[in-house]
UniProtKB/TrEMBL annotation:
Function of the molecule: Specifically methylates the N3 position of the uracil ring of uridine 1498 (m3U1498) in 16S rRNA. Acts on the fully assembled 30S ribosomal subunit.
Pfam families reported for this sequence: Methyltrans_RNA (PF04452), PUA_4 (PF20260)
NCBIfam families, alphabetized: PRK11713.4-1 (NF008697), RsmE family RNA methyltransferase (TIGR00046)
A biological process term (GO) from this entry: methylation
UniProt subcellular location: Cytoplasm
Catalytic reaction(s) noted: uridine(1498) in 16S rRNA + S-adenosyl-L-methionine = N(3)-methyluridine(1498) in 16S rRNA + S-adenosyl-L-homocysteine + H(+)
Protein name: Ribosomal RNA small subunit methyltransferase E
Residue ranges occupied by any Ribosomal RNA small subunit methyltransferase E methyltransferase domain in the UniProt entry: 68-234
Keywords (A to Z) from UniProt: Cytoplasm, Methyltransferase, rRNA processing, S-adenosyl-L-methionine, Transferase
């Protein structure tokens, strides 16, 4: 499987860039006439065949697939000091749609453009390996408070806080929301705090912006563990 950009697909076939040619011929050891799957990161897959010209592959047919969760999931993450590579990889595998790295009251270190490029590359690799149809988007970092001040879109919004602050478990809230909404699923947004947790002011501002505080259970999870747990709970609720 190879991820391609939508513009690489032309009426004549797929134009392959240098890294893709290298991957197909050197890593996968494919030759002229061999077939592979091209994914455009926007939900479309094609069965393609290498031609005589290594820069070009012929499209044989489109492949129907459904590997995405039924609604989009936006994960807002206060940047932990370390471990972001793993968080990006795991949450991509679990079906995240958009990752929003936020600077919070207790984390103010802005990641470099190099780090963002690295996370986007990791998301791409993880999406390929998990056979995602969609390549998750990693937004540029923003402060959590600025993000909350953006105009609201119709989303179910949750903020993860530890048990003393949130009486309701995310799993329970999603289950009751699903049973009352029936098949009407709306996109979800979920926020996870940094190592030191959210400040009370941030939680207050989030609640004022329609975020519901939820717990992931009685044990306190590390900031790099909580995203995968939250995504697993959401995926389980949506795929049941
Ligand atoms: N002492 C901090 C506190 O009480 O908020 C612990 C922060 S925890 C290491 C980092 C983040 O992970 C939290 O801000 C929260 O968003 C999330 N988190 C960790 N365990 C959680 C749990 N059991 N329920 C809900 N959120 C949790």
């Amino acid at each position: 499987r190879v991820a391609i950009a939508p513009e690489q697909l032309q009426p004549e076939g797929i134009f392959l860039d240098r890294p893709q040619q290298h991957y197909l011929s050197r890593v996968l050891r494919l030759k002229e006439g061999d077939r592979f799957i091209a994914m455009d990161g926007q939900g479309q897959w094609w069965l393609a065949q290498l031609s005589e010209n290594p820069e070009f592959a012929t499209v044989l047919e489109s492949i129907p697939v459904q590997t995405e969760l039924p609604v989009s999931i936006t994960l807002i993450l206060a940047l932990p000091k370390n471990g972001w590579d793993e968080v990006v990889r795991q949450t991509t595998e679990l079906g995240v749609t958009t990752l929003v790295p936020v600077l919070s009251d207790r984390t103010v270190l802005k990641p470099s453009p190099n780090k963002l490029d690295r996370w986007r590359r990791i998301a791409r690799e993880a999406a390929e390996q998990s056979e995602r149809q969609i390549l998750p988007t990693i937004l540029d970092p923003v402060t959590f408070r600025d993000y909350l001040a953006l105009p609201e879109t119709p989303l179910e919004r949750y903020i993860c806080v530890t048990r003393t602050e949130a009486p309701h478990l995310l799993a329970q809230v999603l289950a009751s929301q699903r049973s009352s909404a029936g098949l009407q699923l709306s996109p979800l947004e979920i926020a996870i705090g940094p190592e030191g947790g959210w400040t009370p002011g941030e939680v207050e501002q989030a609640i004022a912006s329609n975020f519901q505080p939820v717990s992931l259970g009685s044990r306190i999870l590390r900031a790099v563990t909580a995203p995968a747990v939250a995504l697993s709970v959401i995926a389980a609720a949506l795929e049941m």
